[in-house]
Amino acid sequence: MFEAEIRSIDSTKKRIPFKYQPILYIRNIRQVAKILKINDIVESYEDLCDESKFLLSSDTSTKILFEFMYFSEYVTEGSSLIIYDDLLKAYGKITEIYK
To answer: pLDDT at position 43, please?
Structure first.
């Protein structure tokens, strides 16, 4: 698990749906990751269902907690991160790594 601060490339505001699993590109890693928390505001299932808390725009950065889906990878803090998926196109950096 790791936390990344990301920013959308699109100029429009995007809504990230519950249980969204984007493909992450980190150096030579390409793997699907699930989103566990967004902005440290998600505390319960009711918060996850509230769509207003899943807004991602290009003018603000958002901290997201990710977990790789299939197997663990070696990543370091400060590594660049790219999300290039059908729904979301974003970039950012890894800010914190959890065991």
So the answer is: 45
Say which residues have a Cβ less than 8 Å from residue 56's Cβ, sequence separation at least 6.
6, 8, 13, 14, 15, 16, 62, 88, 90
The backbone torsions φ and ψ at residue 41, rounded to the nearest 5 degrees and listed phi first, read -105, -10
Question: What phi and psi values does residue 44 have, to the nearest 5 degrees?
Answer: -150, 175
Distant-in-sequence, close-in-space partners of 24: CB < 8 Å, separation ≥ 6:
30, 31, 32, 33, 66, 81, 82, 83
Which pLDDT band holds residue 8 (cuts at 50, 70, 90)? confident
Instruction: State pTM to two decimals.
Output: 0.78
Residues 2-97: name the CATH superfamily. Answer: Translation factors (2.40.30.10)
Please give the structure tokens belonging to residue 13.
């505001």
